[in-house]
Write the structure tokens for this entry.
Amino acid sequence: MEYDFRQCRAICAELETELGVYNWREVIEELKDDQDDFEVAGYRFIHKDSIDKIQQEELASDEYVLGCFFPSFLAKHVGLCADTVEKLQKAEAYEALGEMVISKGTIAALQAEYAGVDGYGHHFAHYDHNEHDLDNCKFFAFRVN
């Protein structure tokens, strides 16, 4: 991947003042190593070309979380009506619902709709649920602690 490292350094300098990421040199080193997903100083950086696949993989690895989406949202991806999904959730069958999403092969569609409605911050930024678009570097930054 090619980057304008001067622009990336300028963006990291902004992060130093806005977000408290004080290790811009480490960020630049990760960029030079062609990393598309890395953490520096309590922030996770994910390349825009990889973020959807990474989120899909993370969602697919946790059936319980998949089964916790709103019933009306989840119903579209498991082929059940929202009332049935809600009953399964009340019965604490979250993992079974998540397994249904995975077995139906709708994880990509679910992830795309989820990111389109909620953005990426809710999933990746465990600390404050904010996403920071580092447009010139083609990365998102998320505070994780």
The chain has two domains: 5-53+126-143, 57-118. The first helix runs from residue 5 to 18.
